[in-house]
C-alpha cells in the first residue's frame, strides 16, 4: 500500500463525472490513504454522501455547520491535516471560484486554507473546457502551484466527442503515488533559474526594460520543483506568484542585482537555467530626482551590464550544467549556436519573434532546443508544456553526467543519501531553521564514517531520508515522520533493488540552529542522531548481509545496541513491547536467531537470485523461489515478526515483476500461497502473479 498513512482531502463538485469519485475513494483507501470527502451542494445531486462516507469510513463534509448539532466544520483544520488535496471532478464553476478566491462553499474555503499540494481534475463539455476563460483560470491555478490533471478525450455527457472527460481514477492514483515517491533524476538536485525582465533606472520614475512576463521561467521553476529539485528562482519585476511552495524565490530589479545573486548562488548548484530577459545596457548615470523636460531632445549614455551567462560559463565546473535562452528576430539558429559556444552553455533554448504565439507576454511558446549533438524542434505549446520539454532535456543530460562524466571509481562513504525536509504540514515561518537542519542532516549522514571501508561508486547504497515535520516550536522542538528508503545496485547492471523501506512516525527531538550534528555510540543524548545512526547501521548491515551470508553482524549489532540503549530518548519507537512495528522490534526481530533463514535469504535473493536473473531469467527465478521458501521458514519460526511482512511490502512490485512472465503455474501458486500467508493485505498484487500464469 504505497499511500499508507497519507491524508487526502477529496473535493467533489457537481458534475456527471462525480460517480467516478466513488472508485477514486475506494482506490485511495485500498492504497492505505485516509480520505476525507468534501462535497459541494450540487455534487449531492449526482452521488449520495452516504456512498462516499461508506467507502471512506468518514462522514462527508458539505456545509460550514452541522444543522443537527451546530458543530463547525473547520476548513482550517482540514488544510493543516492533509498531505494532499484532489478536486475530482472539478467543474468550470469551481475552477473559476478557486482561481478567483470566491469562498462561498466549504470546498473552496478548504482549498484556500490548504497547506498541502493540490491536484485538480477538470470534467466538463469540450467547449467549456476549451473556452478562454476556463483555460485562463487553469493557468491561474497552475501559477499558484496547483497540478492540473489534464482531462481525457472521448464521448462526453452531451454525446459530443472531445477533450473534457475526467481522468480515470486509477490514473489519478498513479499520479499521486508518483508525486509522493517520484524517482526523478532531479530529486535533490539544486537548480538555479532566472526569470522575468530587468529594469534599469533612468531616474526615480523611469526605466529601461522589456516585455518579459516571467511566465516561461516560472513554469520551468515549477516543473523542476515538482520533479523534486531544490529550486532557487531569481526573478526580475513580474506580477506572478511563486509557482510552488518548495521554491526559494529571490526578487531583484536590475541586471547588476541579478548578477550578484546568481554568481553567489551558482557554485552550490548542480545546474542553472537562465531564462530571464536581462538588459544588455544600463544608463551610465542614474538621476536621483525626476528629470524635467527642458528641450525637444534628450540623450542617455549607456554602459554595458555584466553578461550573466558568459560569467557563469566561465565559472562552470565539469560537474555543473548551464542552459540559456535566445530570443531572436533573424538568423535564429545560427545566432543561437554562436551563443551556445561563446558562453560555454550545455544547451540553449531558442524562441523567435518570427513565430506567432512565441516570445513575450503570451501563454504559449514555440522552441528549439540546441545542444552540441544537434537541434530538437517542438511545435507551439503552452508554456507549462514547453517547461516540461526543457526540464526533460535537462534531466537527460544530468543522467548522462552520472553515467559517463562522473568518475566510476572514487573513495566514498557507503551511503549516498538525499535528505528532504517537508514542512508543508505546519504554519511555521522560520525557514532558516529548517534549511539549517536539512543541511546539518545531509552533512551528518554523508560525512559520518559509518564503517572503515571505501566504496566504488557503483557499489554505494542510494538512500532517501524524507523528514515530514509534524510540529515545530521556536525553541527548536520538532516532531517528525521519517520516510526512509534505500536501494542497492545489482552488480553489472543499472538496476537497483529496494533494500529497506519504512515509515517512522512521531520522532521527537530538539535542534538548535547552526549546531553540528554529532553521534557518540556510548553517549546517546540526541534522539535525532540516534534515529539516523540506527537506520544507517541497519541499512548498511542489511547490505553487508546481501553480499555475504551474515556479513552485516558487526553493523547490525551496533543498530541493536542503539535500540537497547536509547529507550528513554523521547519516543515510543525505541521501547520494547510498545509496538510490533517500531525500531526496536524491527532490529530485534532481524537479529533473532530464529530469523536466520531471512538473513540467509538476503544474500541468496540479491547476489545469487537477482544477479542470475540478468543472465538468465529462469535460473534466477528458481533461486528466488527458494528464497521465498526461506521466508516462509522464518515466518513459521517467528510468526509475529514484523520484519518478514516488511520484506514483502518493500519487495512487492519487484516480486510481481519477477513472476509476471507466462507459464510456471505450479511454481507461482506455491509462491503466492506463501506471500499471501505472510502479507494477506497485498493480495491484489499476488493475484497479478496468478493471472500471469493463465
Descriptive tags:
single chain; 694 residues; alpha/beta; Rossmann fold; 4 domains; 8-stranded mixed beta sheet; 5-stranded parallel beta sheet; 23 helices; 25 strands; 21% strand; globular
Biggest sheet layout: 8 strands, mixed
Helix content: 25-40%
Distance between the termini: 25 Å
- Give me the side-by-side strand order of the main sheet: 12-11-8-13-16-17-19-20
> What is the CATH topology classification name of the largest domain?
Rossmann fold
Count of distinct strands: 25
Structural class: alpha/beta
Q: What's a concise summary of this model?
A:
The protein is 40% helix and 21% strand. With 694 residues, the chain is an alpha/beta fold.
How would you describe the overall organization of this protein?
The protein is an alpha/beta fold. The chain has 4 domains: 7-180, Flavin prenyltransferase-like (Rossmann fold), CATH 3.40.50; 190-286 and 302-403, CoaB-like (Rossmann fold, 3-Layer(aba) Sandwich); 408-527 and 551-579, no CATH class; 592-694, no CATH class. It has 23 helices and 25 strands. The strands form 7 sheets. The protein has an 8-stranded mixed sheet, sandwiched between helices. Strand 22, helix 14 (431-447) and strand 23 form a beta-alpha-beta unit. Helix 1 (20-30) runs parallel beside helix 2. It is globular and about 100 Å long. It starts with 6 loop residues before the first strand and ends with a helix. 41% of the residues are buried. Mean pLDDT is 86; it is low at 403-412.
